[in-house]
């Protein structure tokens, strides 16, 4: 029996949020991309406050390198957080993205306490070696000030994926029971709110390393037009990926994408 979802409703999300979570919510039946909605809002409002944009479905959701993120109606969570930056020079992307990944896992474990979540560097969340969540952080400028938009796409009960990603992607719960996506959205916002003020101290890294699914695996890391093959060892204190390359050199990478893993 397929899992049962309820619709995304702003008032229900608010009912699960503590008053201390000072995030302004925007909900939509459908958008092209919640990241694009966030950027448009920043350019027109010049806001100084954190905003969250949540859609029931996306027609043009995207992830790394502009790749399409499958976003069907009624089965997933598609949301973006708009974060005004007082000083972009103080922004640590490695610690921020690893912290965001851990906070999303913390939130998902509330609704799915028996599910084993794992992290693929830097911020993809996996269940049963299938990707169930993608996270994308983008820096941009609007009206002369800096913003970061954090896009989060979660396959909550999604089961029928396009053929080109059907083997790689999966839903967290595809059979049986009811799932309250409004509660999950609120839990994600709450977990992020707890993490964000102190992410630069790296307190989340111990849990990230516990969830790190690439440890001791042979990986190929693509960095621009180059690629590196080696054994993934751990995650550095700044969120970088530590790899022992095939010539025995140990290197730390702070950007790039793991494009192949041999488990």
TrEMBL record:
An annotated GO cellular component: cytoplasm
CDD domains referenced in this protein's UniProt entry, alphabetically: BPL (cd16442)
Keywords for the protein's UniProt record, in alphabetical order: ATP-binding, Biotin, Ligase, Nucleotide-binding
EC number(s) per entry: 6.3.4.15
An example Gene Ontology molecular-function term: ATP binding
Record-linked SUPFAM superfamilies: C-terminal domain of transcriptional repressors (SSF50037), Class II aaRS and biotin synthetases (SSF55681)
GO biological process: protein lipoylation
Highest taxon listed in the record's lineage: Bacteria
Database matches in PROSITE patterns: BPL_LPL_CATALYTIC
Domain called BPL/LPL catalytic: residue spans: 15-200
Listed name of the protein: biotin--[biotin carboxyl-carrier protein] ligase
